[in-house]
Specification:
Blueprint: E1 4-8, H1 13-17, H2 20-29, E2 34-40, H3 44-47, E3 55-59, H4 61-70, H5 75-90, E4 96-99, H6 104-113, E5 117-122, E6 130-132, H7 134-141, H8 153-161, H9 176-187, E7 196-200, H10 212-223, E8 229-233, H11 239-251, E9 258-260, H12 267-275, E10 279-282, H13 286-294, E11 298-301, H14 308-311, E12 319-323, H15 341-344, H16 347-359, E13 370-377, E14 383-389, H17 394-412, H18 428-456, H19 463-484, H20 491-502, H21 509-535, E15 543-545, E16 551-554
Helix pairs in contact: 2-8, 7-8, 9-12, 10-11, 10-16, 12-13, 18-19, 18-21, 19-20, 20-21
Length: about 550
């Protein structure tokens, strides 16, 4: 009998499309697997465009949240209704549940289904949320060290929900009648002989949207360089920004046809319209992933708290523009009073980049104030990027590649084929000194945890001694974490340790002590591997040791 998998993905449209690689990877892992999806009712039409799904099970989770907040019904009634809806899931006998929505409600559902293999968050009735699978845990850690993350959300979903496998681009299947509707819609707008370029001016969060007037000026500048028609897309909530862009377009002398598709399409129709276009110029939005899924190139303007490496367009042939600022991207919990990153993107530069993509014209010769990246498939078969213009901070560049290799090897057990930087990190001297200080402290912490395991197995329990040692252990861990967070060479390990200890599980005192000991040993092993990597630059032969303890390659220059 074929394997059965339940996916839970109920929050955003873009997350659904980014799940496409996972769907293909599951078929590689378990050929013929029956894969079902739990999705919010609003996004069920998009889910129907995804490949390799057996059943789409929708529920109005949006209403559930709204009514529980407004107390339209009491919480018990609301969740009783949801439990009745979910009852058939219990009978399906799923082999695996992959929960891609990271909140307690989805965790309760993941636990309720009763599969032995859960990936992502679960929330048993008698406990706090628990994160299963190291890739899913990494997804919760990455926001603390965003500058050094080189994994796209698409790959984290696929690796965490299934595993490694062949390169699998995002794909959407557009029904023939929907594709025909899109062709007729664009033909009715005039400019039939022109290539269409889609433009997404708005965004769900204004923080991650480029200024509307700069969009308009960009479109005007591009219209003076080539013949093109613009399809303006978005929701009614974004109409104010779209109107502002149109006004700026006309004031700047724009002379191209404008097709206003705002609020005039269903989500499948929007995907079909995008498939008829030659390019999408956009903020980081759900429609950006639709464009990737239907196979058109994207120019992604990565401003505010958007990090294109996390959520940017996946697969080869897309372009990402990021302001060349030390604070870009900013943190999700930061309040920016100036939004100066948006002013670093100059309309003429963006227009030249779009011209390059549309016509093969020369790549922008001067790009002061910005970085331009092109997406690609990296040496491990994952989504990657290549810097085409601008400068990166040397420390950020070095550690981005280091942690990309490190976590891939840790979580897959395979050596990474992404080349190690041939030079040591810019802060190597300081890091070696820090590691020499941390390693004996880590050894002591492990010893304390081992003693706690021994004490909890004694009868009668030495309560006072356990309490004293537990207090010493907590203080030692807090000091080690604080020290580790001071360096990019150890901060990622510290973040993972904090999450691991919070994720400790066990039915009794000894089980909990053993879980804590396992977390400390894992952290200590990773710390020693980091130290080995940094010390390898003292090796005259230049042999770099992988995070699995194996020599990889001769990568240092002679």
């Amino acid at each position: 009998m074929s394997k059965r998998v339940l996916l839970i993905n109920i929050t955003r449209m873009g997350d659904l499309v980014q799940m496409g690689t996972l769907l293909q990877r599951l078929q590689h892992e378990w050929p013929g697997a029956a894969v079902d999806l739990v999705v919010d009712t609003r996004f069920a039409p998009i889910a129907k465009l995804l490949p390799h799904l057996r059943h789409i099970i929708d529920y109005d989770f949006h209403r559930l949240v709204d009514e529980s907040r407004a107390q339209v019904q009491d919480v018990v009634t609301l969740y009783r209704d949801m439990t009745e809806w979910a009852a058939p899931l219990l009978e399906s006998g799923y082999n695996r549940v992959v929960n891609l929505t990271f909140n307690r409600r989805s965790g309760l559902l993941a636990s309720y289904v009763g599969a032995k293999d859960i990936r992502g968050i679960s929330a048993p009735k008698d406990g706090d949320v628990t994160i299963h699978n190291p890739w899913m845990a990494y997804l919760t850690d990455v926001h603390n060290q965003r500058r050094f993350n080189h994994f796209n959300l698409v790959d984290i979903y696929a690796l965490g929900g299934s595993g490694t496998g062949p390169v699998a681009p995002l794909t959407l299947n557009i029904p023939a009648n929907t594709a025909q509707w899109a062709r007729e819609f664009l033909a009715s707008q005039g400019g039939q002989q022109l290539p269409w370029m889609a433009v997404q001016v708005g965004a769900s969060d204004p923080m991650k949207a480029w200024r509307p007037e700069l969009f308009g000026q960009t479109l005007a500048a591009l219209s003076r360089q080539t013949q093109v028609g613009y399809v303006l897309i978005g929701t009614e909530a974004e109409r104010k920004a779209i109107d502002a862009a149109q006004i700026a377009f006309r004031q700047a002398g724009g002379c191209a046809p404008l097709c206003n598709a705002v609020g005039r399409t269903t989500l499948p129709q929007l995907a079909a319209v995008l498939a008829q276009c030659r390019l999408l110029l956009t903020n980081d939005t759900g429609p950006m992933h639709l464009a990737v899924g239907v196979g058109i190139p994207v120019v992604d303007l990565s401003v505010g708290h958007v990090d294109f490496r996390e959520t940017g367009p996946y697969g080869p042939g897309h372009w990402m523009v990021q302001p060349e600022m030390s604070c870009a991207p900013c943190g999700f919990d930061e309040v920016c009073l100036h939004h100066a990153c948006k002013d670093r993107l100059v309309p003429e530069q963006i227009a030249m980049l779009c011209l390059h993509v549309l016509t093969g014209a020369e790549f922008p010769a001067r790009t002061p104030g910005i970085r331009i990246y092109r997406s690609r498939v990296d040496e491990d078969g994952l989504g990657g990027t290549e810097l085409y213009a601008g400068r990166e901070d040397a420390l950020v560049r070095w550690y981005g590649r280091f942690w990309r290799r490190f976590w891939f090897e840790q979580f897959t057990g395979r050596p990474s084929l992404v080349p190690m930087d041939p030079e040591p990190s810019p802060d190597r001297v300081e890091v070696l000194a820090l590691l020499e200080h941390l390693i004996p402290l880590a050894t002591k912490l492990v010893s304390q945890a081992e003693e706690l395991v021994r004490l909890t197995a004694k009868q009668p329990l030495p309560i006072q001694r356990i309490q004293e040692l537990h207090q010493h252990e907590n203080r030692a861990r807090q000091a080690l974490v604080a020290l580790s967070l001071q360096s990019p060479a150890t901060a990622s390990l510290a973040v993972a340790l904090v999450r691991d200890t919070h994720n400790d599980d066990g039915q009794g005192l000894t089980d909990m002590a053993q879980s804590r000991l396992a977390s400390y040993r894992r952290w200590q092993k990773r710390l020693l591997l980091v130290a080995s990597s940094f010390r390898s630059f003292n090796n005259p032969q230049g042999v770099v040791v992988s995070t699995q303890g194996r020599p990889l390659s001769m990568v240092r220059s002679a």
